[in-house]
Amino acid sequence: TEMQTTRTESISSRPKLKTLFVGGGTPTHLPAKQLQQLMSLLHKTFNLEDVEEFCVEANPALFEEDKINVLAEAGVNRISLGVQSFDAKILQTLERDHSREIIHSLVEKLRQQIPNVSLDLIFGVPGQSLALWEETLREAINLHPKHLSTYGLTFEKGTSFWKRKEKGELTAAPEELEREMYALAMQMLAEAGFGQYEISNFAQADFESTHNLIYWQGEEYFAFGPGAARYLNGCREMNHRSTLTWLKRIQSGKSPVAESEHLTQEERAKELIVFGLRLNKGVHRAEFKTKTGFDLETFAGDAIKKHLETGLIEENNLSLSLSEKGRFLADMVVVDFL
């Protein structure tokens, strides 16, 4: 495997990890025995004694109790569950093969062994009304997860959603409705005690995703697998997306890397602003200067001035962040910082 063959200067033998995330696919689709082999490989490759967050992404379908046992025994301390919806019709539209009953039973089982559970929900699904979204949020809150992520449905080219939309089988939700859905999520989750710490992410106190914060704070991380992206020593790399190409390259002793880009100080600074604005705490002026050598106002003065005037960003002595209004239009705002 790539993990077994990767021994670079940046990845020493059994490095100590702060966080470990297994996902970007659905590892829990593996049979319990293979899942156990994967966990064993991770323990052989990395020192996980002091790992703060060991998270596995899971699809509620086919996530049986024997797999929960395997993960709990391996030291997994967080599960990110792709719930998406509790409504049978919406789940069907999303091509999901689980049900409300499966989710409820699963969360109950997880609570016994891996209580730090995060639920992913999707809004803006064709056929989903504001009232139905409200029911989804209420049901998710009543399951008492430690963390919730809410994402607007995107139609990415090449996916079956995109093809169904092109054929006229699906119609994208109106933008105004999506905005109302997002506003409702912010309101209901705040009332239920979830603090919003990033555009799409809400957590109970001290249950923010440590791993995801590493991405958004522009820190370094390594990754393995087809399409895996990593950021090390000022360099961004991405593996071949095709599983077959990736596998052939690994087996023949070649690098699986398809794209590599060394960031200039300016590019790094722009990235830090774009990522930082996703976070509710925003971009910290002093930290920005320490990491990039640039003064935030000097570097991005025009964009800052423009969006302070539009009311889409706000500032205090320490930092610059999106306003609540700005969170609805984040993509439009960050373009001006690029």
UniProtKB/TrEMBL annotation:
The GO cellular component terms are: cytoplasm
Ranges where the Radical SAM core domain occurs:
1-195
GO BP terms: namely:
porphyrin-containing compound biosynthetic process
The reply on keyword Acyltransferase is: no
For molecular function, the Gene Ontology terms on record are: 4 iron, 4 sulfur cluster binding; coproporphyrinogen oxidase activity
Kindly state which keywords UniProt assigns to this record, in alphabetical order: Stress response
* A Pfam family matched in the record: Radical_SAM
Signal peptide positions on this chain: none
Which family does the record assign? Belongs to the anaerobic coproporphyrinogen-III oxidase family. HemW subfamily.
| Descriptive protein name | Hypothetical radical SAM family enzyme in heat shock gene cluster, similarity with CPO of BS HemN-type
Give the organism, scientific name: hydrothermal vent metagenome
